[in-house]
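Case study: Probable membrane transporter protein.
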Amino acid sequence: MTPLLILLFGAKPQSAVGTDLLYAAITKIVGTGLNRHMGVVNWRIVGWQMAGSIPAGLVCLLFLHHEGMSDAASRLIRIVLGVALLLTAPAILLKPRLRRWAEGRIPLSERMETILTVLLGVLLGTLVTLSSVGAGAVGMAALTMLYPRLNTRTLVATDIAHAVPLTLIAGGGHWLEGAVDTAVLLALLVGSIPGIILGTLCAGKLHEDTQRWVLGILLAVIGIRMI
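Here is what the predicted structure looks like once written out:
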């Protein structure tokens, strides 16, 4: 969504990122509420991710506050966004292989799992705050490698739950800087309702491998274009 707002609608990078972050926060709150009710969120993993992502996000917000709406800040956001998309593309394309590799490797110690989960939080906090991208495919790919014993439903629910406080804080910081387009945000929320219905109706109509390759190549092309 962020690159589309920048490339197709001419939005400033800071405004596109801030708007997308608040949009993501609002929509993910609903999903997390449902997942919490069903008891599928691993809150221990969420907590360790937050230990790294929240401080990293706050540092990035301080940097953006210092730079303001400058050309240098816009350029940095475009580069980070491009890098995030280029990381997302292989994460989507290689997801099945990553899971098979993780299931076959020697299990990590609990201490090492914790350290790597916090470091993952630092990476996601930086990527999400500067680009609004990374909490989905990149986070899921990393969690799949770190916790292959957990089922996909739990990993997805955990990834979404972690994204809520991160996107709220990052989006709130962008909003305080005046980098959120309220009209676009409301339009996106309104459009998401028929979008969800359409996506639900289309689910299963196209082979998963085809979806993954189309999306992966598309994100790679957009990532290169942003850089």
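For the exam, be able to explain this: The mean pLDDT is 86.
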